[in-house]
Amino acid sequence: MTPPDPSSPPTTAGGTPPAAPRTSPVVDPAPAPGPGPGSAPAAAAEHRADLDLDLDLLRAAVADVLGIAPEKVGDDDNLVALGVESVRVMAISAQLRKYRVRIGYAQMIEEPTLRAWWRLVADSAPGGAATDAGRAG
């Protein structure tokens, strides 16, 4: 038996070349650009989020989830009749969490109007996150 020629490509026992080794995708360990948690800009943005929620932003969140213009969402419109169902309530609730407002699904379904939801926002907002200028009256 002759030794393998070191200049020839390696082969498997069946005489075929071995498969190329699998490589993992290259992941850039560098952090994404922009402010990180705890940085001054990030803290300022979080602080602004607490203060900037108003009725118009709530209306815009509902309209965004429904895919309609905000002016089509009246304060006393039945939001279920406009198309807000369980999944959309959860999507709206997720948008409200950006403002550190947590409203229960059952509360939102119980009285599905913008005015009622604004009352829930005002009642649940930490440290007055809901601005007086945006209160429904």
TrEMBL record:
<keyword id="KW-0596">Phosphopantetheine</keyword>
<keyword id="KW-0597">Phosphoprotein</keyword>
<dbReference type="InterPro" id="IPR006162">
    <property type="entry name" value="Ppantetheine_attach_site"/>
</dbReference>
<feature type="region of interest" description="Disordered">
    <location>
        <begin position="1"/>
        <end position="47"/>
    </location>
</feature>
<feature type="compositionally biased region" description="Low complexity">
    <location>
        <begin position="10"/>
        <end position="27"/>
    </location>
</feature>
<protein>
    <recommendedName>
        <fullName>Carrier domain-containing protein</fullName>
    </recommendedName>
</protein>
<dbReference type="InterPro" id="IPR036736">
    <property type="entry name" value="ACP-like_sf"/>
</dbReference>
<dbReference type="InterPro" id="IPR009081">
    <property type="entry name" value="PP-bd_ACP"/>
</dbReference>
<feature type="domain" description="Carrier">
    <location>
        <begin position="49"/>
        <end position="125"/>
    </location>
</feature>
<feature type="compositionally biased region" description="Pro residues">
    <location>
        <begin position="28"/>
        <end position="38"/>
    </location>
</feature>
<dbReference type="Pfam" id="PF00550">
    <property type="entry name" value="PP-binding"/>
</dbReference>
